[in-house]
Amino acid sequence: AQSVTQLGSHVSVSEGALxxxxxxxxxxxxxxxxxxxxxxxxxxxxxxxxxxxxxxVKGINGFEAEFKKSETxxxxxxPSAHMSDAAEYFCAVGSGNTGKLxxxxxxxxxxxx
Amino acid sequence: xxxxxxTPKHLITATGQRVTLRCSPRSGDLSVYWYQQSLDQGLxxxxxxxxxxxxxxxxxxxxxxxxxxxxxxxxxNLSSLELGDSALYFCASSVASGRGGTDTQYFGPxxxxxxx
Lengths: 113, 116
Prior knowledge:
The complex is a heterodimer. By secondary structure, chain A is mostly beta strands.
């Protein structure tokens, strides 16, 4: 069965600092992996998606994630945090023969001025 | 704006009642997915419809049911509501069946259900 674990339910960084949000997955088949962001009182917005074409995936708003099979990880990074990045971030894995997404528990990113 | 619309935005009702949540997918998308987001369970997949047919079922209670109509909009029906059903219900849509999780899912703004 596929699963996703996000390490750290809350991450706090200073504005301009590196953002690193951790995601580890479990999958018996090559996974499709996603990062979504949820701003307060809004739906989920796709940040980026891994489809095996390239291990380093670039997304919107300066975010990128690197797929590491040996570590079963798909961590999300951004070189310099902006106040507008404060939100909840979800890692997800596509499941089997359907379109079902399995989400991690989410990480709330706080950006301090 | 993802192009997925959900109505209503907020719903307040009492225990034992029945409600219907509505979702219109992005133009051209054939799949509709329903997810429940709650503080204790996180984001949980409920059910997927593809071109009018049920495609996958997740942690959906028997008191809940869904359908997708010929115009591809979908409704999620929640009955005999309990306090624990209070949550944010999201609809998402994708172009195809999403086999293997390949399709990008676009999420609506959600319906916040409060059961008193």
